[in-house]
Amino acid sequence: MIVLSEAGTARAVDEATYVEDLRVPDLSLGTYHLPAGAHDPQQPHTEDEVYVVVRGAGRLWTPERTADVRAGSVLFVPAGEEHRFVDITEDLTVLVVFGPAERSRRSVAGRPGRAADDLPGSQVHSPVA
């Protein structure tokens, strides 16, 4: 077992920041922070994603739908789907689960994905064993 004591911990940030908390071949888990009013620079990923909103409020936009999000919201975004957080009214802290692990696929339907480590402030965290 691994205890992920830092996963989902809120932080004060000035821009979109992603911290990877766990990586194994079949999934990865990270914490995404977006301050109120921030621009979410992410592009479609090559892996499926589950978002669990830990704190804050805003909306998650896709070409097909926009959903209000707040603490407790759980959303699924399939690989390759364009999406981003918009209208962030309260600092967001979001757990992000990628399956398989983020950046483990090269493309989805011929479209390369953008790695989270391309985001400003990205870092990798070592979990506590």
Structural class: mainly beta
> For the CA atoms, what is the radius of gyration?
14 Å
Specify the CATH architecture: Sandwich
CATH topology: Jelly Rolls
Oligomer: single chain
CATH superfamily membership, which one? Jelly Rolls
- What's the domain count? 1
Q: How would a crystallographer describe the biggest sheet?
A: 7 strands, mixed
If helices are DSSP runs of H or I spanning 4 or more residues, what is the number of helices?
0
Instruction: Estimate the strand proportion.
Output: over 45%
Q: Report low-confidence residues grouped into runs of 5 or more.
A: 110-129
The amount of helix comes to: under 10%
Overall body shape: globular
Number of strands: 9
Distance, first to last CA: 7 Å
H and E order: EEEEEEEEE
State the name of the first-level CATH class.
Mainly Beta
What average pLDDT do the residues reach?
A: 85
Description:
- With 129 residues, the chain is mostly beta strands.
- The chain has one domain: Jelly Rolls (Sandwich).
- Helices cover 0% and strands 47% of the residues.
- The chain is built from no helices and 9 strands.
- It has strands spanning 17-24, 27-34, 48-61, 66-70, 74-77, 84-99, 107-108, 111-112, 123-124.
- The strands form 2 sheets. Strands 1, 2, 3, 4, 5, 6 and 9 form a 7-stranded mixed beta sheet that branches. A two-stranded antiparallel sheet has the order 7-8.
- The chain is globular and about 35 Å long.
- It starts with 16 loop residues before the first strand and ends in a 5-residue tail after the last strand.
- Residues 110-129 have low confidence and may be disordered.
